[in-house]
């Protein structure tokens, strides 16, 4: 960062050649790029995201395989959860690609990774299945109604 303030011309020449990271001691590093390179990266993200979303619409199984290849921990999720994970992550990624705000995507990804880790533990997985079964039986009771009600 101090080099940038002392030698602005030299640093801006470097940015013309490639992205530059300005390290700071007491704050997050800064990332300098040209607008053109940034817009190419955004466009690439949009194209890749839309392609994966189109694949998911036609062949969710292949999209889930692609997601598992990119995020290996997805393999620990049960099939139903994989579908929910894929839908949520794709929705957040598409919105982020269009708006430039990817924080919701990364928060969702962290949450799903935590869920996958919970499912990876056999005791936790059984407790989760038991809780789901209980919820399902309560849903049936509420639809059927109780005698005398």
Provide a short characterization of the protein structure:
The chain is mainly α. Helices cover 75% and strands 4% of the residues.
Structure description:
By secondary structure, the chain is mainly alpha-helical. 75% of the residues lie in helices and 4% in strands. It contains 7 helices and 2 strands. A two-stranded antiparallel ribbon has the order 1-2. Helix 3 crosses helix 4, helix 3 (35-58) runs antiparallel to helix 5 (79-99) and helix 5 packs antiparallel against helix 6.
Average of the residue pLDDT scores? 86
- Contiguous low-pLDDT stretches (5 residues minimum) are none
Question: How many E strands?
Answer: 2
Number of helices: 7
Could you say which structural class the secondary elements and strand pairing correspond to?
Answer: mainly alpha
How is the main sheet built? Answer: 2 strands, antiparallel
Q: Helical proportion?
A: over 70%
Pattern of helices and strands? HHEEHHHHH
Silhouette = elongated
Strand content: under 5%
């Amino acid at each position: 960062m101090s080099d940038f303030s002392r030698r602005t011309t030299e640093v801006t020449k470097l940015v013309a050649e490639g992205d530059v990271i300005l390290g700071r001691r007491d704050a997050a590093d800064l990332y300098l790029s040209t607008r053109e390179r940034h817009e190419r990266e955004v466009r690439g993200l949009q194209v890749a995201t839309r392609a994966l979303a189109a694949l998911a619409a036609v062949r969710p199984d292949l999209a889930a395989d692609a997601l598992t290849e990119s995020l290996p921990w997805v393999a620990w999720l049960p099939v139903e959860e994989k579908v929910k994970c894929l839908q949520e992550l794709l929705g957040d990624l598409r919105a982020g690609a269009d708006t430039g705000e990817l924080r919701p995507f990364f928060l969702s990804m962290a949450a799903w990774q935590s869920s996958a880790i919970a499912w990876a533990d056999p005791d936790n997985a059984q407790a989760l299945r038991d809780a789901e079964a209980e919820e399902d039986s309560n849903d049936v009771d509420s639809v059927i109604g109780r005698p005398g009600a």
